[in-house]
């Protein structure tokens, strides 16, 4: 827009082009907020201002872990330069694992520091899929105090919901976190009387299913009695070779996972230090509705298993012994 301050002396006149710039600026401010201009609404500029105040600082991330690239959401416009106090909000596609940078609206790459401005943010402070706020201090973008992550904290990584799925895979396991937790929420099989299995991968592509890749020991009960077993459902004092880790079992009569209405499994699986050059240890505790005739017969399953390899684990997969996973959500967290 041209400067017209010298023509506001009460004598000078504006050319048509100069005059038209004023309503065009107003119109652009309205349409940039996502509104269509309307002669029947005289509050569109106010609505546009309100939109910028509420969501004008929210950006879309298209970068990678530790290198975040932000673009304005929708048709909102971005500032033309970095200024101290500038705030940006976004949902990162990937968690940070080390020192990180951000590039907002192609204004240039800036380092991200913790709330002190002196140190790089700890791994997981920028959590995938979570609302993150950064504030520019004139040199760096800083994370707020509230994002500091203490040892032992659970950091969200990813989530996947089954819908008649043959399997659910969760990737991204590495040495960034000491251990990982997978939370299973109402996981239901499509086929009645099956087992819930888990497998691991060392390359996030192929999942180990050799006859001697895993060993599982478990204790399960139905409130009346308990059953002890392993990957062969025999002597509980032995380790067994198998193609999978058991998270539910068909060992006892009516102990299998059922598929009737409201029958599902929930619980947690812990993968301890999967990046160590040791056999990986997996602990799980799940409860589920069984195939037993009584509608509310529930099973509690406590599992200890190992992956018989020293190659670091990068991903885990969940599947049923037969048929698909009808529904349920699998959420992966890292533990610092």
Please identify the structural class as seen in this structure.
Answer: mainly beta
- Fraction of residues in helix: under 10%
- Name of the level-1 CATH class of the largest domain: Mainly Beta
CATH fold annotation of the largest domain: Jelly Rolls
* Helix/strand order: HHEEEEEEEEEEEEEEEEEEE
What average pLDDT do the residues reach?
83
Number of helices: 2
* Radius of gyration based on Cα positions: 28 Å
Strand arrangement in the largest pleated sheet = 8-19-10-15-16-17-12-13
**Would you identify the CATH architecture of the largest domain?**
Sandwich
Q: How would you sum up the global shape?
A: elongated
Intertermini distance: 52 Å
The protein's oligomeric status is single chain
Which sheet architecture does the biggest sheet show? 8 strands, antiparallel
Give a verbal description of the structure.
With 336 residues, the chain is mainly beta. It has 2 domains: 58-147, no CATH class; 154-335, Jelly Rolls (Sandwich), CATH 2.60.120. Helix content is 8%, strand content 37%. It is built from 2 helices and 19 strands. It has helices spanning 16-31, 44-55, and strands at residues 58-61, 67-72, 87-90, 100-104, 109-113, 132-136, 141-142, 154-165, 168-171, 179-189, 196-201, 214-221, 226-230, 245-246, 265-272, 280-289, 298-307, 315-320, 325-335. The strands form 3 sheets. An 8-stranded antiparallel β-sheet has the order 8-19-10-15-16-17-12-13, with no helix packed on it. Helix 1 packs across helix 2. The radius of gyration is 28 Å and the shape is elongated. The two termini are 52 Å apart. The relative contact order is 0.15.
